Amino acid sequence: MTLFRLEAYKTFSRWRTYISFGVLALIVLMTEIVMRVSAREIIGSMMKAFQRDFIIAGNIVNAWFITAFIMNSLHFHIPFLITLVAGDMVSGEATAGTVRFLLIRPPSRQRILNAKYLTALFYTAGLVIFFAVLCVVLGLPLFGSGDLIMHRLGQFSVVFIPEAEIPFRMLLAFAAAIWSMTVVASLAFLFSTMAENSIGPIIGTMAVVICFLIFGNLPLAFFRHLKPFFFTTHMLLWQGFFDSSIRWLEIGQSALILGMHNAGLFLIASIVYRRKDIKS
Amino acid sequence: MKRILVLVLLLLLMLPGPGVLQAQGQGEALRVLAALEKKYAGLKDYVCDIQVHFAIETFKAPDVQARLYYKVPDKMRIESKRVVFFPRNGGYFNPAQFKQEEYTVLPLGYVTYDKRKAVQLRLIPKKVKGAAQDMVLTIDIGKLLLKEMILSQAGGKQVKAELTYGTFDGFELPTFIRLLLDLPADEPGMAQGFGGLPPDAGEAKRVQGEIAISYSHYQVNTGLGDELFKGTKSPNKP
Amino acid sequence: MEAVLKTFGLGKRFGMRWAARGIDLEVHRGDIFCFLGPNGAGKSTTIRMILTLLKPTAGTIQLFGKDLHKNRCSVLSRVCGIVEKSDFYLFLSAYKNLEILGSMTRRIKRDEVMEALERVGLIARAWDKVRTFSHGMKQRLGIAQALLTRPELIILDEPTTGLDPQGMKDVRELIQRLARDEGITIFLSSHLLSEIEQVATRMAVIHRGEMKAQGSVAELLASEAIDYAIQVSPIEAALRVMQGIPWAQVLSCGESMIEVRLEPGHASELNKLLIANGIEVASLYPRRTLEDFFLRVTKGVAEI
Description:
The complex is a heterotrimer of chains A (280), B (238) and C (304). With 280 residues, chain A is mainly α. Chain A is 70% helix and 4% strand. Chain A has one domain (2-275). Chain A contains 14 helices and 3 strands. Chain A has a two-stranded antiparallel sheet with strand order 2-3. By secondary structure, chain B is mainly β. Helices cover 15% and strands 47% of the residues of chain B. In chain B, strand 8 (132-140) and strand 9 (145-153) form a beta hairpin. Chain B has a single domain (17-192, 199-229), classed as outer membrane lipoprotein receptor (LolB), chain A. Chain B is built from 2 helices and 12 strands, in the order ααββββββββββββ. In chain B, strands 4-3-1-12-11-10-9-8-7-6 form a 10-stranded antiparallel β-sheet, covered by helices on one side. By secondary structure, chain C is an alpha/beta fold. The longest helix of chain C is centred in the middle third of the chain and has 18 residues, at 165-182. Chain C is elongated. The chains are: A mainly alpha (280), B mainly beta (238), C alpha/beta (304). Chains A and C meet through helix 1 and helix 8 of A and helix 2, strand 7 and helix 3 of C. Strand 3 (158-161) of chain A pairs parallel with strand 2 (59-60) of chain B.
């Protein structure tokens, strides 16, 4: 625990760590302000399919709706913010030269790596939790509370989540979101063990995430067969908590697959780094 | 023999032709509609409590309570603490909507509905407004009650409304409307893309289901002001 | 004498090239052991293997009589090292850097950190961010972090690199003080002969990845022929005397100075011989013997 505490202290002592939090705050703030101003327009465009057949009354654009709306973009901006720190976790020591002090200490490389990895995961969780709290804390005064309406874009399909159930489902959804983002952190961490500076891990991780996202959404039979194997496919497991009845089995399967990704990536990182010659 | 043939010819000449028969049927239809309109001429407004129950596979909504305000000719407002998706067409009773000048009325014939004689009329809007295309009304001739309404909308949508009535302050108003929906699952022209929920495996191409609306605690002709409906668009305008 | 560091056939290969091979070192407790070699000889490679920054391709390492890789935690807690320059977390203060690095070895108290900073003259800058430190200050901070964990062995790789003459002097004096007063064994690498001459008690020479010599400085130098500069008069007479001596080789001759190479132990004999022949000896002093030794060793002339 001491090593983890030291690594966490180092990470959160850098102002660069807070760039991500600042960017998230800006995204959430700007999105919520714009949506507050354009609520009617939003309902018009998002509920177009229903407004022809239904009169919609009540507070649709509430804090929960806004939060779920912003969460849909979670897998675009949060991975990049995670890689800024996770990708620098190990390679940053090489860049700074501090690796020469760090690795000659009594704790083994594996223990040091464990501490750094846990710190990367802790940071990831912290970022998503911050995002969640911000969405809700800003959203409730701006938009109020109410039932959550989830719909499938372009389809006649709506799910009502009663207000009483929302906090619990949101909690689970964000826990799932944290779990999905840990894979990005693990990938960035792996690349960080291979590199001597953080640029490579950041770019490499984002390239993998973007490519998998694109491949997973291409409407071609070849990619459809590969889609279940992309971790980005399972990163949306949190959406299962916003269905009429929670799809526990599917969520569990996705969580397991993501967990296996985490384990595999960390195992590779451990093997790589334990064998690595420190020449810098 | 010749005398018989002449008599038959005279009889045939006396019978009304297809155009005459049609004219007579349309006349009957218009008379029924006018009678229906006259029956509710004194109805200026009403307020009632409604409970909406959805039984549609892709529309997972709980039962919702709301308050419905109506004022002639077409003002409607829904108030609810929770989000309500209230069917625009067929969801509430608006006797003033069947203005003869707005529709071409075609008689479809007489039927038996709930063991009573009823007439079926087809109303085709002279001007297309909202999503409604045409309607088929089944009207109980004896009680002058609209028992069933089938709306066909653009895009292959069909909504069938079955009405059950009660008497409130001298007016027969619905206590229960059962809407049967048959809609396409995909909205034509809508882009499929990122966002919202992921598609289910094996989704139906058409959406079929039922919406049951119960009406109670009617308050009729309470003198609702127009300001109550300000900010709400006409029910026919999405 | 207890050996605190021993290597047996230590070697490292990068691809097809051996950067170090067959390194058999033995460092005794209390030594100031200098690892001497030109640039690229394999000094840093050897030190990095000892400090577990590089995985040896061949050989083993023992610290305090225990195998390093099997007893990493227990042996490395008694060792501290500075490889090349001292790099710290620039965004943290001097105090915080020492606290973090020291805590990885053992529980560190605030007083201990402040004391370490005091010893290297950085107490006034304890709370300043390291990014504001000069190179010399960072080197001193590096020594402070080395002292903080109370090691028995300090390994330094070219510790005076980049320092000004005063800085070099300070480091040298600190090394001597640590060895003399606190009994800490020092293992340092360098290519600066003047530095080694002034501090080393034992040394090893490495060249092209291979050990060329190892032993105490005095023994190594005593076994070698030594060059002397002799101020004599009359110079011709002195030359005549020295030409007949088998253990003396005249290297050069000036107006009043002769440079002569003598086999070990013959300096006083030459002095007596010259005086006995009526030649005035104004001075007799040895040249830079370690430099000569080093050059000869690295060119393969001497064999120990």
